[in-house]
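Milestone M4 deliverable, item 7.
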Amino acid sequence: MTIADGSGISRYDFVMIFDVQDGNPNGDPDAGNLPRADPETGHGLVTDVCLKRKIRNYVLTSKGNSNGYDIFVKEKAVLNNLIEKAYADLHVDLNSKDDSDGKKREKGKAQGTEVNRGKRQMCETYFDVRTFGAVMSTGPNAGQVRGPVQLTFARSVDPIVALEHSITRMAVATEEEAAKQGGDNRTMGRKATVPYGLYVGHGFVSAFLAGQTGFSHTDLALLWEAIAGMLEQDRSAARGLMTMRRLLVFQHDSHLGNASAASLFEKVIVKKKDGVEAPRTFRDYDVTIGVMPAGVTLREWTGAGLEELK
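Output delivered:
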């Protein structure tokens, strides 16, 4: 794969509206894996790292390590080994005495113009590097890449209620446990869920950074597809029913943008319908969208792609 010219991409800002029913959208390991929440307001949180993980997993599933669409940060990966492989593909010997600029080398580490070549190779090889960026200055050293696509934490529209449930497994792991229970063989545990929560997250696509990493129109189309479909491919007993309800994309006419992201996000208003006290479904909410400013086009994912909203 050769890096495509990303300079033709517009600036985008986007809104992700998704919900969870009887599940834990993002457990906090520092709080016994309870659903993440803002301690002052009680609103639920889903981290940007969690959302990026789901996007990576979708791309890995749909593209299957195909050329140019491998994933750098994936389960059980050894990142320095992948950086070393990039230099091997470039036929750069990191164990040679001198680097390609003729300077004395620190053994096993790229330097000088080699770093730029390694960075470019990583962008060409890995979708998540040219999309989200990466710190690759460890070990063999391929520098740092600032990605054009960035996400915020997602926050629930209303405060969530975190429930804890006692659960029983009708088996034990060892003979010692069985002996202690006299053959009853039960294991008790706990599971945390949110009865219902509607979350809103935001994201940004920089036209200028897209040009630097080679993030192309093909990559952009895959990003929208991944965001829209990532929850469908992320089922687990812990997460209950999670659904991407709406993906709204603001496209700017200029690379610098025609309106601030904050002003566009404020045009998307999500609130409970009158008379609803304890929401338990997306139908308990209304989503209203204001008029777009000049130079900004609003599109929504429909399943077949993005379509303009009038």
